[in-house]
Here is the input.
Amino acid sequence: MRIVLVRRKKPLKYGGLVVALLSLLSGIFVFTIFAWLIGVNPYPVVETIVTTFIFPGVVKDFIILTLLGYALLIAFKGALWNIGAEGQMHMAFLASIYITLIVFFTTEKSLPFYISIGVILLSIVAAVAAGALWGGLAGVIKAYAGVDEVPVTLILNYIAYFIGDILVYGPFRGTYVYGYARTDLIPDPYKLSIPVQRQLSGNALIDTVTGYIVEFATYAVWIVALILVLIFTYWLLNKSNIGLRIKILGSNPDYLVSLGYDVRKTTVLTFMLSGAIAGLTAALYYHGSLYRIEYPLEYNTASYGYLAILVAWLSMLDVYLVPLSAYIVSAVILGSQRVSSLPSVREAFIRLQLGGAEMAFKLLMFGSILLAYSILRFIQDYELKVVS
Amino acid sequence: MIPQLDYIIDKILPAFVTFYLVSLGHSIFEKSGILNLAIDGVFFTGTGAALLGAILPIIYNIPISPPVMGVLVATLIAAILGLFMSSVLTFLPISHGAVGLSLQFFSYGVGIMLGYYVRLAYGTIYGVSFAREDVIYLSIVSLVIGVVLHLLIERTKIGAAIRAVGENPHSAAALGVRVMAIRIVAGMIGFALIGFGGALFILSWQRSWDVKLFTLGYGWLAFATALAAGRHPIVLIPVSLLFGGLVNSQTDIQSRLGIPADVAKLTPFLAALALMLTYSTTRLRRIFASPSSLGKPYYKEEKSI
Here is the structure.
């Protein structure tokens, strides 16, 4: 008797969604058992994890990770494992900072509408170009020198960090920073977030709903950009010639050659598109939430570039599932932060003589839920059978 | 003693041994066709496990040298993670990258759980670390391991099977290679070596451990080292010597040349990129190429049903 894996003859009904939710639930279940084993009361843990999925704080991470997920999706469709979204984002930050803090720096509290919009657009264009160039550099090295793209993009991340560090320590250091190694705050007229006043009603349900509305209103510009990027990615991958070339590059590069296209140019183009969206994300993040960058640069992006790799892979490279997996990843991050500061977790850690290491609980939760999720996704296309 | 020798023993060799073992393990693992993005996590688990292991002989009066016990525990725990990762990725057709990255975060957590108690209760770990001169023997041991693994990969049937599984698991299976068994062997050896390197990182090089260690990204640096040397156990020797030297002499380079710290930090990465670009123009490009099935999900069609 043995267990074998068989490909499903017909796809599961609502497979993508159902399997995603079931794998998520089993990940949470496995983690809860683990928490129970080390002496943490499981009830508040589950409650916190589940309520995080309807928690307004998820919205910001969700938007950024979805945007980056689409950036990486394009590269991954071409079987180009771009793990350099971090570096592409940082190069884009530097471009945006050059435009907003060096060229068009202002201490005015308000500027005419058309000037602010013009500067913001210019900054976004510069960021997109910088991201595309940094991505394109990896593409050129991959295509023309034949070096594997995984180490190249990883190394380019670190090179981007240190170039940024050198600049933030030197020419980009602000004049109003009290000796800290960081840039000035972005001038008020260039901010993209919309400040919204809010009064709590005391009713949990109403506050959750208004919380979502407030978050969506604050990041309204990001939402617009997200919808545009979604439409662009869908159009690119399903309706355009370039998208078809990228998909053929991913499945059978020899076929691309026999169709008369240049594999090298397609590789560079794919990387540039991927980097461009990462650059756009960086500009939006800088104008809408980050406002300045600080030395050392590695800590500015909260590892969005690496988390986005998870998002893209967890979506099984499906355009429609990218937002879902981005939502799951951002909820699990936030949930793990909330869980690790629960009183019951703290007590259990003190009992285990590990007081102060609640960070471990956070990492274990994040890792194990996503591990179970990424493993169980096979059920969508395959089934296990016992044969004698 | 001669000052140069002191410098080599104190600065170059500990860094060399760590980078060599970790990148060697990574190379063996990836030769079998599994993309290893969990390297930094496993490396950190190795450091935590080594710390716990080094304390055990003192607590339970085991007649074994504390640092040796640390190395044993670290390799054992890392090998278990390797067994898990390689068997799951061979049995199920799932994304290597997603599993690797999730496992990385998970093993960061495991590393903290293992090491934190010792960190709190004992603080300094000089007493359980390797002695200063031991690093010479450790270097010899790691070089022997490297040469043996090189011979294993190039000259034996198991080695040929590992390479075949990395190039094309389907053809290898058709020729009678048991893909699962071979990948498990490669995975366990590879991760055990990464754990060994992690153990030496704290017991011979740093001689201290902290929760925040995992944010430094030494595992990723070893990842770059392994690929800059084309996953070749012998070529890895000079490359990890160069990397270890560059990483550990940063402050000296900085003060001698009078350059900013960040420029000095940049040098190892530029060197790695330059190395990879250089050999891509020569014939080494073919020998150093990645296994063609690296990172591709493996699914064997069942013909019997």
In short: The mean pLDDT of chain B is 89. The two ends of chain B are 72 Å apart (CA to CA).
